[in-house]
Amino acid sequence: MTTGADVRDILELTGGENDGPISKKDFINSEKKKAKKTTETLTFKRPEGMHREVYALLYSDKKDAPPLLPSDTTQGYRTVKAKLGCKRVRPWKWMPFTNPARRDGAIFHHWRRMAEEGKDYPFARFNKTVQVPVYSEQEYQMYLHDDGWTKAETDHLFDLCKRFDLRFIVVHDRYDHQQYRKRSVEDLKERYYSICGKLTKVRAATGTEPKIYIFDAGHERRRKEQLEKLFNRTPEQVAEEEYLIQELRKIETRKKEREKKAQDLQKLIKAADTTTELRRAEKRVSKKKLPQKRETEKPAVPEMAGIKFPDFKSAGVTLRSQRMKLPSSVGQKKIKAIEQILTEQGVDLNPMPTEEIVQMFNELRSDLVLVYELKQAHSNCEYEQQMLRHRYEALLKAGGVAGAGAGAGSGALTAPQGMDLNASNSAMASTPGGEAQVWPGADDIKVEAKEQIIDVVGAPLTPNSRKRRESASSSSSVKKVKKP
């Protein structure tokens, strides 16, 4: 048998005071006691150092537990100290070093790791020097001699260029103008690069054309003169130049607007000319083809069919995938038919829009639309053909029955087996005393059938238009039958 302790354990009731028999109050007040217990366990004090606003964001109500709980409330709300590793520190040493860029053999000292002792100075790789050519006495006398320059002055120039790495402003500043002639920066550059070009040309291998840098001293002098003039302008000249630049921009914008208007006008004129020419050509072709159509009795085939995709020739960036979008002129039925055929054939509806794929995909869909239109036209032609055949047979039956009835009742002449309907009509009209009734012959029926042939190029016949044509044809046949 289960005891009271087992029942309390199942119902999660606390012991102590309720060790006696279970009463009704124990079951009713059990949920309230659980709620009190949970609220008491979830409450905690605000940590030291935490602002009231932050604590309110952290724990605003007593319904839900806070998302974060302090791990150590004794230390308070503060940043955690950095946890350093327990590995052994690498030793450093104050050791001497030399810089390979210096030629005076100076020795310096710095702190460096013990493992890097004896290695080269790490910043020595950034020491880049310019290779200044060196010439001999014989080469100078044969190729480099110049009346305006002496050999001593040329040697002094090359020595300064080698010392200061072709910084010609510094070379010009350190140049010995007392011992030698006063030279400008352009003169020094021209002499140096002319000697370099001659030496590379002389020392080049036979059959090769070396690249020679040519320094244009005249252009450099003119450039500096223009810069000096630009720098020495007065405020009035600067304001006048800005005004002229603004006026020039206005003139250019007006010119562009006029050119754009002229281009638009030319486009309109060309479009109007082309439309008028096309209309004239269509009229001429239609006039020439009308008798041929009546003779051959063949429906016309549409010249322009399919889909006409728009051309993106406007300025700006466009995506190639936009060229695959079907125009709004294509109806929903055609779009659904195209998608159905593509899915049946296993063709992707949105292929990768490369140049070749876009062109071929558009041509494929245009051909599918053409096939769809031709199928519709073919079905309409078959329907009209069947309708005309049934009408033809009905008219023949009505003409034969009416002719037989008229011959039996009024004593008129009946057409023999070898005589056609037209002959019988003429005979009945010439017979005296008989009623002059003319029945439709085979030619009349053929002409009426010709009139009912539909045009493939035009829109298909709707049910209302078919009914109107049937009523009109039936009324015309009745009028021919009851003709006096």
What keywords describe this structure?
484 residues; mainly alpha; 15 helices; 2 strands; 55% helix
Description:
A hairpin with an 8-residue loop joins β1 (92-98) and β2 (107-113). 55% of the residues lie in helices and 3% in strands. The protein is mainly α. A two-stranded antiparallel ribbon has the order 1-2. Residues 293-304, 406-440, 449-462 and 477-484 have low confidence and may be disordered. The radius of gyration is 54 Å and the shape is flat.
SSE string, helix = H, strand = E? HHHHEEHHHHHHHHHHH
What is the β-strand count? 2
Mean pLDDT across the residues is 74
Structural class: mainly alpha
What is the count of helical runs?
Answer: 15
Q: Termini distance?
A: 122 Å
Helix content range: 40-55%
Q: How would a textbook summarize the main sheet?
A: 2 strands, antiparallel
- What would you report as the Rg, rounded to the nearest angstrom? 54 Å
Structure, briefly:
It contains 15 helices and two strands. The protein is mostly helical and 484 residues long.
Q: How does the SSE layout of this entry go?
A:
Blueprint: H1 4-10, H2 24-28, H3 30-42, H4 52-58, E1 92-98, E2 107-113, H5 137-144, H6 151-163, H7 168-174, H8 185-203, H9 217-231, H10 235-296, H11 332-345, H12 355-410, H13 421-430, H14 442-451, H15 463-481
Antiparallel strand pairs: 1-2
Helix pairs in contact: 8-9, 11-12, 12-14
